[in-house]
Amino acid sequence: MRRTIIDLRNIMQREGMDAWISPSSDAHQSEYPGEYDKCRRFLSGFTGSAGTLLVMKEEAFLWTDGRYFLQADAELKDSGITLMKMGEPGVPTLDEFLEEKMKSGEVLGFNGALLSFAEGKVIANKVVKKGVKLKIGRDITGEIWSDRPKRPHSKIFILEEKYSGKSAALKINEVREKMGDSDLLVVSSLSDIAWLTNLRAFDIKCNPLFLSYFILEKERALLFVQEEALSEEVNIYLKQQDMEVLPYDDFDKYVDGINNKKVLYDEAD
Question: For the chain, which terminus, N or C, has the lower number of CB atoms within 10 Å?
Fold first, then answer.
């Protein structure tokens, strides 16, 4: 039995959770999450790029696809985690499994930032009707990951208009015009934010992107970003383009404060 699974179960017991989902994604559904965000790998020991871990009180399961069956068999040996071979006959999907196994009154937990709205909705639709409660919140994995790598924050640079085609201010105004009667637009896709701001960096492997969130209101454009990634030049640029800078870690708190407003967002993010 992996020590990480034992430690996670101790936290689950403290938090009153009967099951915990750990996906492979980061908060932006990036194809190549950074080392900081590889919680599923840390917990399970499975190093493949795709997979979802489910830890319950007495059992644990990991879903992955055919590219990784042999690798997962080897890496999960003696871990106490059962391999669920996706697409194979008789192997249920994660949501089907949860619907079958979880009972009324039990609590299913996961870090809401790591599952897209669409994924979370599928799971919720399966289990809530059975009386299962959801505990969507923080990343409890961080409590047991003592040597967790730092979150990347490479220096952000400006993409000149001769390459981007339009100024960020113009793009922002054009998007506002498409918002209709909505009060705000929430953007978590890093590629969308890079396009909208005309900024680039190298926080994500193989992609010129930077960790950030963007909220567009009728009168304000808010960029949530790690302050360490900003140079004086970029700070001046952001002011020129009428964008306000807020700390990356303040995004969740800001969203929690949104009430009685019509919000646009992409369910895939």
Answer: N
CB contact set of 223 (below 8 Å; sequence gap of 6+): 193, 197, 212, 213, 214, 238, 243, 244, 245, 246
Looking at the predicted structure, is the pLDDT value of residue 179 above 80? yes
* Three-state secondary structure string covering 239-269: HHCCCEEEEHHHHHHHHHCCCCCCEECCCCC
Q: How far apart are CA 44 and CA 55, in angstroms?
A: 10
What pLDDT, on the 0 to 100 scale, is given for residue 190? 97
Partner residues linked to 225 by β-bridges: 212, 247
Dist CA 187 CA 129 (whole Å): 30
Chain length of the chain: 269
Torsion of CA 85, 91, 96, 98, to 10 degrees: -70
Task: Please give the mean pLDDT across all residues of the chain.
Answer: 95
CA distance 53 to 82: 10
| Angle, helix 94-101 to helix 117-127, in steps of 10 degrees | 30
Please name the residue that has the structure tokens 């194809």: 31
